Amino acid sequence: MTVSDSRPLTTSVKMFHRFYYKGFNTLVFKDRQHYLNCKQYYDDNYKGMAAKDIPVGETDVFDGVRYLN
Question: Which domain of life is it from (predicted)?
Answer without folding.
Answer: Bacteria
